[in-house]
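Please supply some protein, with fold tokens.
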Amino acid sequence: MRNNTLYLPGFSQRLCGRRQRSGTQRLLAQASKLDGLAAVVARFIPEGVFAGIGQRNRVFTPWVTFCAFLGQVLQRGTSCRDAVRRVQAWHMATSRVDLDGNTSGYCQARQRLPLAVLRAALDRLARWCAERTRPADLWQGRVVKVMDGCGLSMPDTADNRAVYPYASGQKPGCGFPTGQLVGLFSLPTGHLERFVLSSWKAHEAPLARQLVDWVAPGEVILADRAFCSWALLALFQQRGVDVVMRLHQARAHQTGQVAWPKPQRPKSWDQQQWADLPEKLALRVVRFRVEVPGFRTDEITFVTTLLDKKQYPDALLADLFRRRWQVELCFRDLKTTLGLDVLRTQTPDLVEKEIHLQAIAYNLVRALMLAAAKQHDVPPSRLSFKGTVSTLRAFAPLFAPAQPHAAQRYQELLLALAADPLPHRPNRVEPRAVKRRPKCYQLLTRPRHLMIVSSSRDL
């Protein structure tokens, strides 16, 4: 029944009520108000991931906040004010509503954004990439995953220091809280499967134990010497995963098949879990010499659970281990291109959310590269990550709902990515040096407020 009240014209639906729209309908309505970046994201992350979060009619809904936060990550150095300006532009272009430019509402919305939703979005992207692995990119018909770690820093706040303390040797007020991330990457696709976050004090090998369940039986794990521990090798072997790891410098073995006896139980291990591991490991030690001019190491020794020398000869394993360097390029894309090396959020909760947004942005770019590679039959390794980020920024306005032929523009985006492959550069060598000299500024040896006082006295 329609209530035509004279003293409240236009409020009949608010007084009498109406059937509530489903979460999917609300999200579709929200997505129609966003820009082209949101339309690209919706191709890989279903809108239903954000359904049922918050019932209030906010400007910064979870979907809007997520897209604005993601836009900050994809363009390094973008401030919260820039993100709010994007939301203002969305609303002015669709509803003609002028929003307040204050960043307070957006910052509060980022704090409300559930971490579980970001993890679900990351899982969806990782699954999308894994399902599109090309058979031609497999190694001996098997999926290879690479594991490695990196360090990262964040703003020097009391909350961050409580969870991520200073690295050793840093004076109070002169350093930055330091964290450590151990990631699991897919070698054929380059996407980030899963990661573990901790402070710099944790060792990489115990952190890697949390990633064992994310490697499927029959796959191959590739890692550096920091992960070459008896316990980690035993866990992977128990799960049915083969391992190729560089031999730890504390171990000395002749090449060929060896047997590693079970050591004493570490304090971090449960007694029952340790008892379930075998008494010895049957392994194979392979040594090969690097004869490429410019490479840093002349001889490399690694250990593997692939014992069949006829099926897996030394040269084949050596070629696989040389591809381990690909994970360093993946971390370069995360840290240098997207800005994971220096985080910007002020609390540990937001730090974890920012890292998840970095991982989502990274996998989103990898998904576009995989889509272009599969559409135009190009190896994904020949596509540029940084070039894909730049192309996505340039093409994003064309995917806005108000723009015509959005589907055709997406195909043109994939064509632009595939038409600009990287040159084939095997054994490429670049010196680990910079040409541009840094500015000769004084180093901060005391907290800044103390140096300001001393400088004012000198004046």
Notes: The beta strands are 144-153, 178-186, 192-199, 220-223, 242-246, 256-261, 280-289, 299-304. Confidence is low (pLDDT under 50) at residues 1-33. The first helix runs from residue 12 to 16.
